[in-house]
C-alpha cells in the first residue's frame, strides 16, 4: 500500500468537512505533514529499525518538538512538559526517541540550519536524555526553574488572563455569553450532538466528588491542530459554582497509532481515554487542570480545561541564537527522561536501574542517529506524493 493510500485508509470515517480541512492544512508545509502522519512514520520504523532494545518506558507515543508545551496545573502554577498523550503506550525507548530526532532534522530545515548545527542538536538531545537517566532523578520545569528564552516565554504566558480568553472566544446573546462560531476556532453543533455532549458531561459531573461547574452554557465543535482534525472534539462554555465562566476541551480518544506494532503486554484499560489519562498521570509530575476520562457507550473522551496559559513552543518564538535552541532541546530531553524515570517500574516498565544501564549503552544511540538522519528523505517523498495526489483530487469524498 502506498503512503497516500495509507493516509486515506487511516483517516476513513472522520467528519468529512473537518477532514477536508485537515488535508488542506497538511499541504501547508513539511513539518505539519510530518506531525499529521505518525502512522506512516511508525509503519516504516517497525519495518526498518532492527536494533535490539530491551528497555520499556511509558511513552507519549508521538514525541516531537511541538508536543511539548505549557499548561496550568492543579496547583495553579504554569509548567512546561510533554502535553499530548493520545498515542501513549508502553514502548521500547528507541521507539519514543526516534520520532523526536527526526522532528529535530525537519525543524532544522525549516529554521535553515547548517547540517553541523542540526547534528549538534541531535547529539545534545541524546546526551541530555542519557545524562538525566544516569542521574536517576526526574525534574520538572515551571516558571521559577525555567531559564533563557523558555523563561521569557513562560513569563509572557502567565500574563494571559482567563477573562480575556472568554471574551475572545464568546459573544453576548440576549445578555448571556455564547460561543463565537465566527472566529474559525469553533463550528456550530447540531442539536442532537449538543444534547449528547451535555448529557454525557453532566452525568460525569454529577459523579465527580468535587464538581468543577454547575451548568453548561454552550457547546460547539472545536477546530484546532492538524492530526486530530475530523475526530469528535468539542468546546464547552461552563459556569462554575461561583458564577465564573470557563472553557473546557472534550476530545475523542482512539486506539494508539503504535498499537499495531508494539508487541509488549499492555494493561487492560477500560477505555482508550483511560489509557491516555493514566499514562499522562504517570509521566507528568503535575497534571493539567481537570484532566479526566469520560466514557459514553463504545466511545470515550478526554476532558480538560482550555486555558489561556496553554501553548506550544513554536519555531516563531526562537530568538535566532543556537545556544538558546540547544538549551531548549536539552530541556526537552531532560523532561523526556524524567517522564521515563517517574513512571519506571509501573506494570512492566523498566526500573530505574535498567534505564541507567540502557543509558550507558552506545550502539542503540549510533543506530538511532543513523536512521533518523536518513529518514527525512522519506518524509519529503511522502509529502510530495501527498501534495500531488491532493491537487489531483485523490482525497475528495
Q: How are strands sequenced across the largest beta sheet? A: 8-9-10-11-13-12
Number of helices: 14
> Globular, elongated, flat, extended or rod-shaped: what is the shape?
globular
| Class of secondary structure makeup | alpha+beta
Mean pLDDT figure: 93
Q: What percent strand?
A: 15-25%
Protein name: DUF2252 domain-containing protein
Question: How is the topology of this model organized?
Answer:
Elements lengths: L2 H8 L5 H11 L3 H6 L2 H11 L8 E3 L8 E5 L5 E5 L6 E3 L1 H18 L4 H21 L5 E2 L5 H10 L4 H8 E4 L2 E4 L6 E2 L3 H17 L7 E8 L10 E7 L5 E8 L19 H12 L8 E5 L2 E8 L4 E2 L9 H21 L9 H9 L2 H12 L1 H16 L6
Antiparallel strand pairs: 1-4, 2-3, 2-14, 3-5, 6-7, 8-9, 9-10, 10-11, 11-13, 12-13
Notes on the structure:
With 397 residues, this protein is α+β, with helices and mostly antiparallel strands. The chain folds into two domains: 3-159 and 320-391, no CATH class; 162-255 and 286-306, no CATH class. It has helices at 3-10, 16-26, 30-35, 38-48, 93-110, 115-135, 148-157, 162-169, 191-207, 272-283, 322-342, 352-360, 363-374, 376-391, and strands at residues 57-59, 68-72, 78-82, 89-91, 141-142, 170-173, 176-179, 186-187, 215-222, 233-239, 245-252, 292-296, 299-306, 311-312. The strands form four sheets. A six-stranded antiparallel beta sheet has the order 8-9-10-11-13-12, with helices on both faces. It has a four-stranded antiparallel beta sheet with strand order 5-3-2-14. The chain has a two-stranded antiparallel sheet with strand order 1-4. Helix 5 runs antiparallel to helix 6 (115-135), helix 6 (115-135) runs parallel beside helix 11 and helix 6 packs antiparallel against helix 12 (352-360). The two termini are 20 Å apart. The mean pLDDT is 93.
